[in-house]
Specification:
The protein is mainly α. It is about 75% helix and about 0% strand. The protein has one domain (about 10-380).
Length: about 375
């Protein structure tokens, strides 16, 4: 297993070229400044009595960045459970996403402050579903679920030992259960009166797709470093490209299946979800761009083996998927919380998003630079 023959000795790792240089102070300062600007922009929106606009962009990024982090760890668990030999270097990059999980839990706690804005049903509970959708029960189950998921994730990443495969299986099961319920609570319930039995599966797959794209970007960027490029080549990129291609097909299948059921059912409580996102040309255009970024472009480009083996093309496709998934989260949240609105992004919302990006990048790079990872050598993995 990849969990065997571990080492935590910083000097040995650095001599072996497996520990990157420390995070440059200028980069840490820049990312910290971006975080501060994002917090300031959020407070400015609140001070301008734009509470809905502030909390909806917070929710967009809360669904996006913590989802990316936990999906990165889930991919490391998938590599472990399947006994995959090829992604030992990729796994290290995926595991490091766990550094963001403590901050992700703090962001979850912060949503309590905006609960009456984020959950329209909180002010006017529906007696038919109040047993499930009430704030104490929602935050209670999410607190237990996220603590369990994040705790197992951190244990999987930072605990050396020989039982990692069993722990990986447990992690994936908990991830599937917790994130399905999470999707119901923080994504589906914000659209008043709407529900879909397909939504949990779609959200779960989207999150894995998001995490895979993020890990691909990190892998291609790491391949440009002298201390990484010897282990990252066309074969690794080709495998990641195949996975992205497969997930583009899986995503469009689930996305189309959910849409088809809503379309042919034509029931008022179901089509409200579609109507809210197609009632203006700006939302239609956003949906079209999302479809191109998440399916059309990666599918057509990644069919080519040569394109999959090219780090530049693979990086472009992964970035396109990341952008498309952020637009999908925006399209999911904003029409629900601001019905009748048009697609628009002001400078405060862009600054808040940049602040979230900076928080993820700072946590990730700090962990990658300072914490030796528990990764087995390529020679040991190849001999397995």
């Amino acid at each position: 297993m990849l969990g065997e023959h571990l080492t935590d000795d910083r000097g040995e790792l650095r001599r072996a070229g497996r520990l990157p240089k420390l995070l440059p102070r200028w980069l840490a300062g820049l990312l910290g400044l971006m975080m501060a600007a994002g917090i300031a922009a959020f407070l400015i929106l609140l001070g301008q009595d734009e509470t809905t606009r502030a909390w909806q962009i917070f929710l967009v990024n809360f669904l996006y960045w913590p989802g990316m982090a936990v999906a990165g760890v889930a991919w490391a668990a998938i590599f472990e459970v399947t006994r995959a030999c090829w992604p030992s270097e990729v796994r290290r990059l995926a595991e490091t996403c766990a550094a963001y999980l403590p901050l992700a839990f703090m962001l979850f706690l912060a949503t309590w402050l905006g609960r009456f804005t984020l959950f329209p049903w909180a002010r006017q509970p529906n007696p038919a579903i109040e047993a499930w959708l009430n704030l104490p029960f929602l935050y209670g189950r999410e607190t237990v679920g996220l603590l369990l998921l994040f705790g197992i994730s951190l244990l999987f990443v930072y605990r050396p030992g020989r039982a990692l495969q069993k722990l990986g299986v447990l992690l994936l099961i908990i991830y599937g259960v917790v994130y399905t319920i999470f999707s119901w609570d923080f994504a589906m319930s914000i659209q008043p009166g709407w529900f879909s039995t397909m939504f949990g599966a779609l959200f779960f797959v989207e999150n894995l797709y998001l995490g895979l794209a993020a890990v691909t970007v990190l892998t291609v960027l790491a391949g440009r470093r002298d201390d990484w490029n010897s282990g990252l080549g066309p074969a690794i990129f080709n495998n990641l490209g195949k996975l992205l291609l497969a997930f583009s097909l899986l995503w469009i299948y689930l996305f189309g299946a959910q849409y088809l059921v809503i379309w042919y059912g034509n029931l008022p409580h179901e089509i409200s979800f579609i109507l809210a996102r197609t009632e203006s040309d700006s939302w239609k255009m956003l949906a079209f761009v999302m479809l191109v970024l998440l399916f059309v472009t990666p599918f057509l480009v990644l069919l080519s083996p040569a394109a999959r083996k090219s780090p530049q093309i693979l990086l472009a496709m992964a970035v396109a998927i990341l952008a498309g998934m952020w637009l999908e989260r925006y399209l999911l949240v904003v029409p629900a919380l601001s019905p009748g609105s048009q697609f628009s992004l002001n400078w405060q919302e862009l600054t808040i998003t940049a602040g979230f990006f900076a928080s993820f990048a700072l946590a990730y790079l700090f962990s990658l630079a300072r914490i030796p990872r528990s990764v087995r050598s390529r020679d040991d993995a190849a001999s397995r």
